[in-house]
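B., you asked whether I could sanity-check this one before it goes into the benchmark set. Here's the sequence:
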Amino acid sequence: MSLFAVFLAIVAGAMAVALVALVVTLVVLAVRSRRPSQPRVTYRND
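And here's what the prediction gave me:
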């Protein structure tokens, strides 16, 4: 693999991680706003 291909792979991987983190954040915020009666989060951060 050329250096440019490796660079593209790293950038694509970083974008994928950021996208997953964004989706998880949106889901967590949606669940929290949907259940205001449970202020304490029962999920453990792995």
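One thing to flag: The longest helix spans residues 3-34. Otherwise nothing jumped out at me.
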